[in-house]
Amino acid sequence: MERLTDPANGTGPIDPAAFREVLGTFASGITVVAALAQDGRPAGLACQSFASLSLDPPLVLLCIGKGSSSWPKVRAAGRFGVSILAEEQRSVCEALGRRGEEKFAGVDWEPSAQGAVRITGALATADCALESVHEAGDHHLVTARVLELTARDGGSPLLYYRSAYATGAFG
């Protein structure tokens, strides 16, 4: 195994490229975090930093880059959906991962009774209410209370592994 840091100096700087390379060996699912903005249009972003946080109360955790132009709109809505993407939804991830106002052009979605945006065909969705936002380096660490859940039968997740899309036969 190749050592990428100096063990004698555990407080030294970590090279960002090495950090990305090493942490990229942890496969993560890809989600879309989306809400109805104040103008009634959907606003959202692709997010791979998502996890369950608590069963009681039901909370989730996500990390959103501070440079996101969509997050302020989602945050202002106060309620949002987290859609867990299926392997065939790579184009949805690419659409929601880009910058611009027309991210949802060609993306099938539906509003929920909770005021969230759900991506059609997702493996599962969680409608959430914003709980807290904390500063964490170059990201916002967000916690949200889960209000409603949906899941479809079958399917496999869209994954991100070593800076590329990956799929797995889980269904």
The spatial strand order of the largest sheet comes to: 3-2-6-9-10-5-4
What is the CATH first-level class name?
A: Mainly Beta
Number of domains: 1
Largest sheet: 7 strands, antiparallel
Structural class determined from secondary elements: mainly beta
Q: Helical element count?
A: 3
Number of strands: 12
Q: Tell me the overall shape.
A: globular
User: SSE order, as H and E?
Assistant: HEEEEEHEHEEEEEE
Share of residues in helices: 10-25%
Q: Into which percentage range does the β-strand content fall?
A: 35-45%
CATH superfamily: Electron Transport, Fmn-binding Protein, Chain A
Mean pLDDT: 90
Characterization of this structure:
This protein is mostly beta strands and 171 residues long. The protein has one domain: Pnp Oxidase, Chain A. The chain is 13% helix and 42% strand. The chain is built from 3 helices and 12 strands. The protein is globular and about 55 Å long. The model has no long low-confidence stretch (mean pLDDT 90).
